[in-house]
Amino acid sequence: MKKALLLLGTCVVLGGCLDKQETSCSGESTQALIKDILTDGINKAIGKNGQNAERDMQNAFDGAKIRALVSQLNFAVVDVRTTKNDPDSSKKFCAGTLNITLPADYIRDANKARELMSLASLEKFAQDSGTKLEANRVEESIEYSVQPTDDGKKLFASLDNGSKSSAFTADILTAVLVKGVLEKRQLEVAKAEAENASREQQQAAEQAQVQHELAAIAVQKAGRNWMMPMAPSIWCGKVPARSAGPSCWPNSASG
């Protein structure tokens, strides 16, 4: 899975005449626009990860699944402050702390997927990438701007420097999506290894049986040779002069 840093985002909200509170850095409309920018960026980053994924993983990146996962995220910009407010312009420059809260099971599933891929845990990944991860909440300082149109009917918001936390969140959701594929792979590998081990055991047993049968045949053959009677040996020598017996007779040693 490749990481993709979210690009600068701009979003617009339509309405009647927007009041000053709605066009402020902490206004409800402004917060909604920032959420839309982040949501859109996360969706696109996950989609890009899917395009770069291995073939058997690509079906996991279904658009409906991605949207369902993203819909469970909670976005909030806290400690908001106006960093620049030009009296000659309606545009405001803002800063705040972005909190993205994920369901706890997303963190658990993503860590499991990363383990199956032999990757570091999310906690270690966050530390190495300079991202703040507290339990199931990702935090980051962000800068953004907000500006109404001259007629006050539209509001534009822009995230100035992208969002590292959103890219990190996209990686978490990507891991959640492919977890099922990775577990299926693991089961297939375990099944193949078990079948291979079974074949090896069967071959070893068959070979041992053949060796046993050959050994039994050898023992039987050796037994038959041991039981076979020996032909008597014949001794021939000089017969005493007065002997009328044969000139050759069985050696007494041979029985």
Give descriptors for this structure.
6-stranded antiparallel beta sheet, disordered N terminus, 255 residues, single chain, rod-shaped, 5 helices
How far do the termini sit from each other? Answer: 92 Å
Counting copies of identical and different chains, the oligomeric state is single chain
Helix content: 40-55%
Q: Write the element-wise H/E pattern from the N-terminal end onward.
A: EHHEEHHEEEHEE
Question: pLDDT average, as an integer?
Answer: 80
Main β-sheet description: 6 strands, antiparallel
Rg over CA atoms = 43 Å
Question: What is the total number of structural domains?
Answer: 1
Low-pLDDT sequence parts: 1-9, 11-18
Number of extended strands: 8
What is the overall shape? rod-shaped
The amount of beta strand, in percent, is: 15-25%
Give a structural overview:
It comes from Paludibacterium denitrificans. This is Lipoprotein. The protein is an alpha+beta fold and about 260 residues long. It has five helices and eight strands. The strands form two sheets. Strands 1, 2, 3, 4, 5 and 6 form a six-stranded antiparallel sheet that branches. Strands 7-8 form a two-stranded antiparallel ribbon. Strand 5 and strand 6 form a beta hairpin. Helix 1 runs parallel beside helix 5 and helix 3 packs across helix 5. The longest helix has about 60 residues. The radius of gyration is 43 Å and the shape is rod-shaped.
Topology:
Blueprint: E1 9-14, H1 28-51, H2 63-71, E2 74-85, E3 92-101, H3 104-116, H4 122-129, E4 132-134, E5 137-148, E6 154-159, H5 164-227, E7 234-236, E8 248-250
Antiparallel strand pairs: 1-6, 2-3, 3-5, 4-5, 5-6, 7-8
Helix pairs in contact: 1-2, 1-5, 3-5
